[in-house]
TrEMBL record:
It holds the Pfam family GAF_2. PROSITE patterns: ANTAR. The keyword Transferase applies. GO terms for molecular function: kinase activity; RNA binding. This is GAF domain-containing protein. It comes from the Bacteria. It comes from Cellulomonas hominis. The keyword Kinase applies. Residues 177-238 form the ANTAR domain.
Length: 258
């Protein structure tokens, strides 16, 4: 690991308590994953030093890559890396190890990223991978940038590396919560649709003096003939009879504290 250091590259002694406190607060507030990434990348830049910038790349469960950056210069570098499909951040996430670039101009790897990084005014960079647990398929890495060249101080890399691991676990938790929220929303929508259909079936049964199976067949034929969702056809029937839009009498409600 790098042993040299530049001015302003010492990590604050209490970095972990403050960084972890911020992550815990964000998770408790159930912020979206993109907002969490923005907070993570700003904290990473702060930990790396007053003249540092940072960018973060996440691959979660094979889904599309999400990118956040502490400033537009770092964002430009990260976009070039994403467009090329290769660079230190993607490489660090792929091989799960630290990658340092003490002198961007002298490093022959990743031409597209190198040109964008030099154009942005950065002379050196480092990429630190994160490791998530609990069965979450997550590749996360943080790119650090600074104007000067030379090795990064080992305390900075160690501190940001530990923070990257904490951040990876936080992103995994937030992503799982978002997925659960989507599942809950789908369940609520399904229950609401079922309730509307049940109300419409009652109307069809009364109008046609038939049983529930025949009423369902009538409703299904109407849906197919009109090329419309059964819920929409059912809602029109209920609205036409009652004069008001249908509602679900058994609406899902979140438990207190969730």
């Amino acid at each position: 690991m790098a042993t040299g250091h530049g001015a302003g590259q010492e990590a604050a002694p209490d970095w972990r308590s403050g960084a972890l406190g911020e992550l815990h607060a964000l998770l408790a507030a159930t912020v979206p994953v993109d907002a969490l990434l923005d907070a993570i990348v700003r904290r990473a830049a702060t930990l790396a030093g007053p003249d540092a910038s940072a960018a973060i790349t996440v691959r979660l469960g094979g889904q599309a890559t999400v990118v956040a950056a502490s400033d537009e210069r770092a964002a430009t570098c990260d976009r070039a890396e994403q467009a090329a499909g290769d660079g230190p951040c993607l490489e660090a996430a792929r091989v799960e190890r630290l990658i340092t670039v003490p002198d961007v101009a002298a490093d022959p790897r990743w031409r597209e990223w190198r040109e964008a990084t030099l154009a942005a005014g950065f002379g050196s960079a480092a990429a630190l991978p994160a490791r998530a647990e609990d069965g979450i398929q997550l590749d996360l890495a943080i790119n650090l940038y600074r104007a000067g060249t030379g090795e990064w101080h080992e305390d900075v890399l160690a501190g940001v590396g530990r923070f990257a691991d904490d951040a990876g676990r936080a992103v995994a938790v937030a992503a799982r919560a978002e997925e659960q929220a989507r599942v809950n929303a789908d369940l609520k929508q399904a229950m609401a649709a079922r309730a509307v259909i049940d109300q419409a079936l009652g109307v069809v049964m009364a109008q046609n003096r038939c049983g529930p199976e025949e009423a369902f067949a009538i409703l299904r034929r109407a849906s197919q003939n009109r090329n419309a969702k059964m819920r929409d056809v059912a809602a029109e029937i209920v609205t036409r009879i009652s004069g008001t839009e249908p509602h679900s009498p058994h609406e899902f409600r979140d438990r207190p504290g969730r």
